[in-house]
Amino acid sequence: MPARSRALVLAAVLAAASGCGRSEPGPTAPAGARSVILISIDSLRADHCTPYGRVPDFAPDEETTPFMARMAEEGVLFENAEATSPWTLPSHASLLSGMHAREHGVRQRAMALSDELELVSGRFRAAGWHTAGFFSGPFLHPVWGFGRGFEVYRPGPDYLKSDETVAAVTDLRSNQGIQRVHDASHRQAECAEPVMREAMAWLEEDDRYEEPFFLFLHLWDPHYDYYPPTEYRTRFLPDDDGSVRGDELMDMEVELTPELLRTLQALYDAEIRYTDDWIARLYARLEEWGVADDVVVVITADHGDEFLEHGKRGHRKNLYEETMRVPLVIRAPGLAPAGVRVEGSVSIADIAPTLLDLCGLEPWPERSGRSLRGIWEGRVENHSPRLDLVLARKQLLGWREGKDKLIFDEAKLSAEIYDLEADPGERNPLRLPLNADHPVARRALAALQAEPQEPPYPPIPVNEPEHLTEALSAAGYVDGD
User: Fold this and answer.
1) pTM above 0.70?
2) pLDDT tens, residue by residue, 437-481
3) What is the dihedral of CA 280, 284, 286, 290, to 10 degrees?
4) For 197-206, what is each residue's pLDDT tens digit?
5) Is domain 33-385 classified as CATH 3.40.720.10?
6) Where are the domains of the chain?
7) Could you say which of 137, 184, 234, 312 is the most buried, measured as most Cβ atoms within 10 Å of its Cβ?
């Protein structure tokens, strides 16, 4: 198939899967409406970000996220923001729906968001905002429903839109091509640049930045494997001898010595800085256009990565803070205060309701996510994030409120309770039955029982061809332990 034909096929596949594309003009956003940029950085744990105290091991004079630090100085930083799940798919469903995982129901790869479930993109589009999303990880593909509500929703990096990808997607006879494409997602060194260039081009087209817009950006780079651009590798690993490749974290045949772990985390930090620098470049364009103070900017993540803190590698293994505590910064001049650090517990499921609140749009009264305005205004001390992980032989439910955290193992019918103030590393759990007569257990159980036991918008089976399922499973993305 010629290259141009393949590009057209891919565009058709993405448009059909997402239900997006240009349509007839709709409502007009109200005068003075704020624009929004929502940025999700994949696999970014909070404690590797500059405003959360990260000092790189081998390059103490470097900062991992200086731009995020600037946004924190000019906005609100949340010290204790929790992901809803320790992996990409369910957490992004929560981020865009304002629901915890058991509400939207997309807890395993086989399920996609209900066609009837409105996302924050759809709420903005219906109110007259321009909407666009650019993504760089396979689990943001519109096949899971993420393209809904966007005028434009497409991938940035080549590994998701190359000729090889088109051939793999359209060849139902073999899974070898799609296997290579998915493996490439781990090796892709530079995802942020193509995503940001797509975003800047979309904003610049017809001077769209002058009108209210909702822009969602997903940046894959800090996700393992860790292959930062050479410049960044050198900065964060100045005495690099080249012996560490960057893919050792998930190579189970490699022993992760303390020195190797430190080196891998240096490469992880380099990936983070590369991503932060590209976000800064996008923001610089907003400043050039003179609209930066008219845009609400949110920077967050879907989960973190574990470096053996609890004996595991990567993510999608447990509900501990190394994978669940993520950065969250909101800059909204005139709407949110500058330089405020909020200690209360919050969830990424609260972000979409917050954006609706800041932009004067009606909230979803039936969803568990709540606007964060009450937190930074001091009217509410804590929200109560719920955490979720479903595997073939394991189901973990979690709850947090302030310093108190509970993790319930359904298979073992037991709970671990932590005081995160006294035990931030979660080393000394109090193990009890969930229904034990303990104040934290009682509060957690009440919160979990108050959640919908069935999703109000039941998820639908994902239209994932068998060869793609096999390929993703072979690449390590399995709904098992």
Assistant:
1) yes
2) 999 999 999 998 888 889 999 999 876 556 556 555 655 565 544
3) 150
4) 999 999 999 9
5) yes
6) 33-385
7) 137
